[in-house]
C-alpha cells in the first residue's frame, strides 16, 4: 500500500480550516524584504515508517549557514512554488522531479531574514540515490516523520535576537540539530497532520 493516498486525505482534512496562531517570524523581518521561496518536504513512501529528507547547508552560505533545511530556495520569475521546490531539490540533491508525487502546498512561513517560504509536501520512493551539490548541501539525511510530527520530540528555547526575545524549537537527531525555520515549518505542519491519524489510515 502506498503512503500517498492516506497522506493526501490527512493533508486535505488538516488544511480544511484556518489555524490563526501558526508560527511565524514575520515581525523580525526588516526593510520590508519578502522574497518568495519554496521548500520540498519529501516523505518516503514507506507507510509504517516514512522518513523525511533533510539537508545541512554549507557553513559558508550567506543565509542560514550550517543549518538543517529542506531542499529549496528562491522562486524564480515565472515559477510557482511547486515548480521551484522540485527544481531546487533536483539541483541540490539530484532528486528527480518526476519521482515526486506532490500532495500540495502547506502554510506559508515568513522568516526573520525576509523569505516568504511555501512548503510543498510530496511523496518519493524510498532508497533514491541522492547526490548532494557541494555548493548547496554539506550533508543530507532522513528523519522519521513520526518523530518530527510529535510535539513531545521538541524542546522550546528562548534567545535574544534583533533586540527582542525569540522562542524557537529544537530537536537533535543523530547529531543533526533541527531548529529555526525548518523546525517551525514542521511544527506548523504537525498542526495540520496528526501522525496517529495518518498511521491508523495507512
How would you sum up this structure in a few lines?
This protein has 202 residues and is α+β, with helices and mostly antiparallel strands. It has helices spanning 4-14, 81-93, 145-148, 180-192, 195-201; strands at 35-44, 51-56, 68-69, 72-74, 101-105, 109-110, 115-124, 139-144, 155-161, 164-173, 176-179.
Topology diagram in text:
Layout: H1 4-14, E1 35-44, E2 51-56, E3 68-69, E4 72-74, H2 81-93, E5 101-105, E6 109-110, E7 115-124, E8 139-144, H3 145-148, E9 155-161, E10 164-173, E11 176-179, H4 180-192, H5 195-201
Parallel strand pairs: 1-7
Antiparallel strand pairs: 1-4, 2-3, 2-8, 5-7, 6-7, 9-10, 10-11
What does this structure look like?
The chain is α+β, with helices and mostly antiparallel strands and 202 residues long. It has one domain: Nucleoside Triphosphate Pyrophosphohydrolase, CATH 3.90.79.10. It has five helices and eleven strands; from the N terminus they run αββββαββββαβββαα. The strands form three sheets. Strands 1, 4, 5, 6 and 7 form a five-stranded mixed sheet that branches. Strands 3-2-8 form a three-stranded antiparallel sheet. The N and C termini lie close together (8 Å).
